[in-house]
Amino acid sequence: MTKLAIWWIRRDLRLTDNQALQAALEQSEAILPLFILDHKLLDSPWVGEKRTAFLFAGLVKLDEQLRDKGGALIVRRGSPQQVFHKLSEEIAEANLELVAIHAQADCSPYAKQRDQGVAKEYPLILHDGIAIRPIGTVNKDDGDPYVVFTPYAKRWLDEPPIAREGIISAPKAVKIPSAIASDSLPNVPDLAATLPFTAGEAIGKERLGNFVKGDDAPIFRYAAQRDLPFNDATSHLSPYLRFGMISPRLAALGAYTARGNASSTEERNGAQSWLSELIWRDFYLTILTHYPHVRQGAFRAEYDALAWENDEVHFAAWCDGETGYPFVDAAMRQLKTSGWMHNRARMVVGSFLVKDLLIDWRWGERWFMQQLVDGDPAANNGGWQWVAGTGTDAAPYFRIFNPLTQSEKFDPKGNYIRHWIPALRAVSDKFIHAPWKMSETEQQRVQCKIGKEYPEPIIDHKWARERTLEAYKAIKG
Question: Does the annotation count 280 as an active-site position?
């Protein structure tokens, strides 16, 4: 009998540096690269159509990669238990011996429950790969997980740098049994063509190389320019990391290599700053693994008692980019149009929702997951709890971003605002951050009447700040 291993693909749509794939190849004479269209995930209220379109496009690209190596992607529809029950029958009928199912471990509550159910009936073996350093290996001296980022990052950096020798090469060939058929690949929605990201491992690697390689690599300017939304100074790799179209270890190797090649303190700081962002990703994966309750409520449970206003009209204005605060609205329109938002903008709009409008951070968390191509349960949750002051490394509750000063500091010429809000394109630099301050004459001159072409502010920031401080103090008290 031919020994067969299943490579169960979930969030690792890549051939390079894939521990689960490598284990399957080493253990068997043939492998079955399997992706399950699990309707419990696809029909979840947390799912976003842009992210699904990106995923489906990625599956098509992965199938092309496998066919180039003599294989093919096997797609099945249904619950994992149903799929494996049917597959095990087909494997036996084809006179094949299933030796193991190899998969990359995930950390969400659903993923862990799903895998426990499969492991009770089938030989499931889970592998590292979702994080740079395996979850559970960066701990305190007593073995407990860190719940504060700074000491976690220090311990993380104390470990040996990621080296090229540790990166697993893509296989030269993939042999699959012809007796096992695939359902049709999912149709890629037309929406995928409108996204600012092209799916696939090849594009992910290309983006990484463009960001970290060369004497003038953008990573060297990252620390200095990362907070400027209009400068396009970030890597745009988050969607590829979200679905494992590139290995997080490969990304970290790029950061370490760039840091080693830096010719100045500024360049070294740039590489180190980007590496720190990758460490944040590992940290939030660790938090979700050890503290799954964060998916339902605050890391610090006392903050679940906050007296939220939860004004649905205000929430709708925030979602649509109609708050009357240009920087906030530009960011929210970028999100709704492209499925992505600059990280500084994410912090500002998050603070505005929670600290100005006093709307439950979980409303924003879900909206982001419904919109983001890179929506990741761990990182998205961690970011929202940080800005709400309810999480691990929570910003102090009294740290409330002022949407005007944030706008003036990080979009000084209003380029980001004008790009996403056409009604404000003729507004002068003097009023671009606070267009409601324009006189009637000025509004007529730039053809932007406040309250008509662009909304008035839906709330007064100074008043809202005091209201929020009182709400948080009630909890602290």
Answer: yes
Residue from 343, 408, 415, 436 carrying the catalytic annotation: 343
Question: What is the C-alpha separation between 315 and 308, in angstroms, rounded?
Answer: 12
The model's pLDDT over 128-155, given as tens digits with 9 standing for 90+, comes to 999 999 999 999 999 999 999 999 999 9
**Domains of the chain, each with CATH number or no CATH:** 2-130 (3.40.50.620), 131-167+202-290 (1.25.40.80), 301-476 (1.10.579.10)
Q: What pLDDT digit, counting tens, does each position of 222-241 carry?
A: 999 999 999 989 999 999 99
First to last CA, the chain: 69
**How does pLDDT run across 449-470, given as a tens digit for each residue?**
999 999 999 999 999 999 999 9
Is 367 catalytic? The answer is no
Respond yes or no: is residue 384 known to be catalytic.
Answer: yes
- Of all residues in the chain, the percent with pLDDT exceeding 70 is 99
The pLDDT of 238-249, averaged and rounded, is 98
- Nearest-angstrom CA–CA distance, 124 and 428: 61
Active site residue 420: no
Range list of H helices, 1-48: 19-27, 39-42
Tell me which of 210, 269, 308, 442 is the catalytic residue: 308
- Choice among 8, 156, 280, 367 that is catalytic: 280
Of these residues, 7, 201, 274, 277, which one is catalytic?
277
308 is catalytic: yes
463 Cβ partners below 8 Å, 6+ apart? none
